[in-house]
Amino acid sequence: MKLGWKKKLFVSFGILLSIFVIVYMVLILTMEKPPLTEFKSCQSILAKAKRANADVYSPEYYGAAERKYQAALIEWKIQNERIFFKRNYSKARGLILTATLKAEEANASSGANKNSLKMKYLQEAELLKKKLDNYHDLFIHLPLKVSLRKNYEFGKLSLEQGLNAFSSGDIMLATKKLNEGKIRISIADKEVNVLLKEYFSSFSKWQSWFAATIRLSAQNNAYAFIVDKIQHKGYLYYKGKLSKEYDVEFGRNWIGNKFFAGDKATPEGMYRIIKKKGNGDSKYYKAMLINYPNDEDYAMFNSKKKQGIISRNSRIGGLIEIHGEGGKGADWTSGCIALSNSEIDELFSRAAVGTPVTIVGSMKSLSELLN
Q1: Which of 33, 53, 285, 331 has the smallest CB count inside 10 Å?
Q2: Are residues 193 and 238 in the same domain?
Q3: Residue whose C-alpha is closest to residue 359's, from 240, 219, 252, 255
Q4: Of 112, 139, 164, which residue is a domain's last?
């Protein structure tokens, strides 16, 4: 009787154990598997995108892929910490699938974005180069503050560094250097544009002066000399036609008119030669004295003195000449117009006492110069 009871108990225990094992095996066999294959696939595509510099050229897609991948890893860890039959990897699988899609998009778009960045860089670099060339050709002689010149020099250096980086295939560094240069050039341009806009407000007056001077040359079948400050050129006309052009240098504060003695500015107006000084008669090799100040200069001087723009103790000055010893590549005179000795020889032989000398800020409008 006792043996029968034990046997029944043993059989019952065996049945329960079998049921437990079967249930356990069913749970093992039917539980959701972690997305190992999906993770490996995503890792491979992310690595491929990284090699294509997608983190640089397609940062939005690549960043999204990385974030989804990390979120999938966290979700996987959370599920692994749960009891095995309660694990659910569907969220991790969804996240890794999204990460894979974003990685594919990053990989596909990085090449196109890189080419787009290349084109954009080349276009903007060309524009910056034109600005720098324009500055060098037209405005290198402008009497600018040291800080402004440094901005232009920084822009030039940044452009060179950017082009070197571009040649090496580093588009992002090239773009960074380009942007640094653009910022500094933009700062300088704003100040220069204000300066030039104010200066060129006198353009209509200059235009009437040089047009009248050319007409006078044509009417008298004679020489006339027109000085263009912005271009740093002197133009010799004969019978109303351009005969010769010369490089000229001025006082260091040449932009704007001359107001008083000692301001290191070169006057603007319609003048004439009143005296020629041969070699040995002038401080500066040969020279031709002009009739500065004329009536208009006296009127302007007295008006500005009355308004308090210039000191009551100021003098109007004089002794403005076209003389030699130029060719220094800088503006250095006290207000005179300097040519090289060989060119003053030539001009001296052609001009005479009475020859018109007209000095203007520019013979071209600002828009013509900038374009």
Answers
A1: 33
A2: no
A3: 255
A4: 112
With contact defined as beta carbons under 8 Å apart, do 34 and 89 qualify? Answer: yes
Same domain, 231 and 186: no
Q: Assess whether 323 and 213 both reside in one domain.
A: yes
Per-residue b or e along 344-360, where b marks 16 or more CB atoms closer than 10 Å to that residue's CB: beebbeebeeebbbbbb
* Same domain flag for 83 and 146: no
Two tokens, residue 196: 């030039």
Please check the confidence at residue 266 and state whether its pLDDT lies above 50. yes
Q: Supply angle C-alpha 41, 42, 46, rounded to 5.
A: 120
**Contact, 52 vs 111, CB < 8 A?**
yes
Q: What is the CA 33 to chain-centroid distance, rounded? A: 58
More confident residue, 85 or 331: 331
Domain identity same for 212 and 361: yes
**Alpha helix positions (H), 200-271:** 203-220
Model confidence pLDDT, tens digit, residues 112-165: 877 888 888 888 888 888 878 877 776 777 888 888 888 888 988 998 998 888
Mean pLDDT (the chain) is: 87
Distance in angstroms (rounded) separating the CA atoms of residues 110 and 56:
8
User: Which of 144, 174, 200 represents a domain boundary (last residue)?
Assistant: 200
Question: Residue 89: is its pLDDT beyond 90?
Answer: no
pLDDT at 17: 61
- In a shared domain, residues 238 and 192: no
Which parts of 135-202 fold into alpha helices (H)? 146-167, 171-199
Whether omega for the bond prior to residue 143 falls within 30 degrees of 0, making it cis, is no
Query: Which DSSP string corresponds to 304-329?
Result: HHHHTSS-TT-------EEESS--SS
Mean pLDDT of 189-200: 88
* Tally of domains in the chain: 4
How large is the average pLDDT for residues 173-180? 91
Token pair 């052609």 is found at: 350
Q: Which residue has the tokens 């003695």?
A: 261
Cα separation, 294 vs 269, whole angstroms: 9
149 and 237 co-located in one domain:
no
Which residue range forms the structural domain that includes residue 366? 202-370
**272 compared with 107, residue with greater pLDDT:** 272
Work out the number of other CB atoms within 10 angstroms of the CB of residue 91: 14
CB 248 within 8 A of CB 233: yes
